[in-house]
């Protein structure tokens, strides 16, 4: 089978698509023929070695957590999952950027027919992180929540989930994302000088009570300047600010489950949640996919199609 591998930390040039042995499912595992698997900034950070102290790589390393596909084989003692079923899931073994991947049955949920493959394959990392960040700051009716990085992969989930709470959602994003954010019920605000004043204008006297930081670069400090309580500020990127100010750092790990995936998939199938797909690439164009991701200016998700 074909799978993405890299033998050392580095830029996109270290990524290769190789022929490797197809794995065999063990007890409690299934082999999934991958139909779609999105890419994420965290995977680029791991490959580059920027987070090696927290998430070291063992070489040769695979990559990828998100996946959607068809059950190809089942291991011993597997119940509730059958060959031929369409599933959405995740792996913690950095292995989904491949034609086949082993998945624990506990990490799978059924794919609704109404959810396209590329969307199903883009749910896990960004989706569960979006869920976790909104839960962490708990916005409610009658208050405003600010989301920095609202147009990115996690942001598109967090914005829509926050809107569903009834809170006023102030979405910090580049202007090219503003029309889409308005359609989703958020109030878009541009980056740059004067952002604090623009946030207050966008709040329209609604108390600004919560802040989700998906960007870093001083947004925790901005949240504190706005008078937001530390336990209503969540950042998934600014870990020095977490240590310095005692704000929250709840991300995907706090919501990573098949149950969360099922809830997201059901919301998409019902038309209550939209996942924009910026582009899809064949597996052998993985370098091109990460080149686009790492250039920034992403609106939604980039997905590999094996």
Beta-strand content estimate: 15-25%
Q: What is the CATH architecture annotation of the largest domain?
A: Alpha-Beta Complex
Computed over alpha carbons, the radius of gyration is 19 Å
What structural class do helix, strand and pairing data support?
A: alpha/beta
String of helices and strands: EEEHEEEEHHEHEHEHEHEHHEHE
Key traits:
single chain, alpha/beta, Quinone Oxidoreductase, Chain A, domain 1, Rossmann fold, 2 domains, seven-stranded mixed β-sheet, 14 strands
Structure description:
This protein has 306 residues and is an alpha/beta fold. The chain has two domains: 153 residues, Quinone Oxidoreductase, Chain A, domain 1; 127 residues, Rossmann fold (3-Layer(aba) Sandwich). The chain has ten helices and 14 strands. It starts with a strand and ends with a strand.
Task: Sum this structure up briefly.
With 306 residues, this protein is α/β, with parallel strands linked by helices.
Topology:
Elements: E1 2-5, E2 16-19, E3 29-38, H1 41-48, E4 66-74, E5 86-90, E6 100-104, E7 108-110, H2 117-120, H3 124-137, E8 144-148, H4 153-163, E9 168-172, H5 178-183, E10 187-189, H6 195-203, E11 208-213, H7 219-225, E12 233-235, H8 239-245, H9 258-269, E13 277-282, H10 286-294, E14 301-305
Parallel strand pairs: 8-9, 8-11, 9-10, 11-12, 13-14
Antiparallel strand pairs: 1-2, 3-4, 3-6, 3-14, 4-5, 5-7
